[in-house]
Amino acid sequence: MDFDAEDMKKMKYTQYCLNETLRLYPAVPGTSRTLQTPYMLPSHPDTVIPNGTEVVTFFYGAQRNPKYWERSDDFWPERWQNPPKNPYFFTPFSAGERICIGKNLLYDEATILIGTIY
Predict the structure, then answer these.
(1) Binding residues
(2) Which long-range contacts (CB under 8 A, 24 or more apart) does 90-97 make?
(3) Which residues belong to the annotated binding site for heme?
(4) 38-61: per-residue pLDDT in tens?
(5) Fewer CB atoms < 10 Å away: N or C end of the chain?
(6) Boundaries of every domain in the chain
């Protein structure tokens, strides 16, 4: 089957399945950063994490947290019809300024592979 970039944009369910797979099984289960400046926790303004502290983020666990994800352990691609508003809820590529530059390449390659097999 031949298809192009416009066809790939129409493959919404494929995108949902890729997102759900990465939510449940991120390629990188976590990351760490060393604070360059002290950081005040927004939810606890009296708590300050000192400069030089290594902060570890565990994507695997966070993306299965039932506080943020309905049916958190289920493979449920339809959840991506209404994705989370907060970009830090889905972080298999990290988020913000340090988001992985290969994110779009992965989605394009995976979509092409799935479309070719289908």
Answers:
(1) 100
(2) 90/19, 90/22, 90/23, 90/63, 91/26, 91/57, 91/59, 91/62, 91/63, 92/22, 92/23, 92/26, 92/27, 92/28, 92/59, 92/63, 94/31
(3) 100
(4) 999 888 989 999 999 999 989 899
(5) N
(6) 5-30+60-117
